[in-house]
Structures are given as structure tokens and as C-alpha cells.
Specification:
With 184 residues, this protein is of the alpha/beta class. The chain contains 7 helices and 5 strands, in the order αβαβαβααααββ. The mean pLDDT is 96. The chain binds zinc ion. The site of zinc ion (ZN) has 7 residues, from loops.
């Protein structure tokens, strides 16, 4: 398990007071909340490519940087960042070559069954109104998906005046960012 390696590293990190390099408070220095994909290629690249230092921004992630419902946990986190943590700009960043583009739902269901989930469980969920097709549906193009998410934030009934909402797409190889839409 990688966990043990991580814990051993952490012990040394704290003992050597390496945390001192990262001291900051909880309010984002750049007054910004970023919502992006959980993509592992972006763990460090996104910060380096956009010059984000520790303490600069609030970061929210999920699979695909997807918001589809106005009251999901992502949207709630964005609202908390705005109301409680002084964020004034919201930036949604999708990326090229994302695992959530064109998700094969049938293959995913098969994989679940292969890993021991009874097919009856899938049927019961379907009966309860939890449609895996909807839940796991990703997107066809990343630009379209970013726009959709941006739209949900911009039109949110609880979004206060003056918050700028932008949509970007980043290349996970080069870090190059393209603007899909910018808030005014
Ligand atoms: Zn992704």
C-alpha cells in the first residue's frame, strides 16, 4: 500500500518543519475559486502553468470538471467560497483528453458486474430513479461541457452580483490554456 510510504514521508516532513514554506491563511490571496478535473496530470501542472502558489485560490475537483445540477456539492462549494471565503472570480477549467469524454456506460456497467456488483443492484438503482446513464454521462466536447457548467453557475439563483465566471480548457501535456468564455 502506498499509504505507508506516504505516512513515513509525512513524519519527516513535519519533523523537518518543511511546512514553514507554505504558511498562509484560509482566504484565497487571488480572491478566486477554481473548479477543475481530478486528472492526475494536472496535480502540479495546473498550478505551475497558471502561477498559482499555496494560499492563492480555493480548488474544487471532480471527474471531468462537470456541474450538471444547480444544487450539487460542487455548486455548494463554489457558493461557500464566494460567501464565506471572499472569492470574487470563479474559473472552471476542463482539459483535453479527459476520461469523462465519451464515457461508455455499457462498458462501465459490465466492469461493475465483473468486479462483483450484482446486476440486481443496478436494476434496483434504476427503479429508485438513479440512472447510471445520467449519473456517469460525461461529455462530447470539453468546450461544450465547460460552457454548460459555467452557465449553471452564472444563472444560479444564489449567485451574488459582481461575481465573474470564466471557462477555460487546459492542455494536460503543455499546460497551454484557451479561454472558452470570460465573465465581464
Ligand atoms: Zn479529466
Amino acid at each position: 500500500m502506498y499509504l505507508d510510504e506516504m505516512l513515513a514521508f509525512n513524519k519527516r516532513f513535519v519533523e523537518n518543519k518543511e511546512y514553514e514554506l507554505y504558511k498562509t491563511d484560509t482566504y484565497p490571496n487571488k480572491r478566486m475559486v477554481i473548479f477543475t478535473c481530478m486528472e492526475s496530470r494536472l496535480v502540479e501542472l495546473l498550478h505551475r502553468a497558471l502561477n498559482i502558489q499555496n494560499g492563492d485560490v480555493k480548488i474544487i475537483k471532480n471527474a471531468g470538471a462537470i456541474i450538471r445540477k444547480p444544487f450539487d456539492t460542487v455548486m455548494k462549494s463554489i457558493l461557500v467560497a464566494i460567501y464565506k471565503l471572499k472569492a470574487e472570480e470563479v474559473v472552471i477549467i476542463g482539459h483535453h483528453d479527459c476520461g469523462m469524454s465519451n464515457v461508455d456506460i455499457e462498458a462501465l456497467k459490465k466492469e461493475m458486474v465483473n468486479r462483483g456488483i450484482p446486476e440486481s443492484t443496478l436494476d434496483i438503482l434504476e427503479h429508485c430513479g438513479i440512472h447510471l446513464d445520467e449519473e456517469f454521462h460525461g461529455f462530447n466536447t470539453v468546450e461544450e461541457s465547460v460552457l454548460k457548467s459555467v452557465q449553471i453557475v452564472r444563472e444560479h439563483p444564489l449567485l451574488p452580483e459582481g461575481i465573474k465566471v470564466h471557462g477555460l480548457v487546459i492542455d494536460p501535456e503543455t499546460g497551454k490554456v484557451d479561454v472558452v468564455t470570460r465573465g465581464d
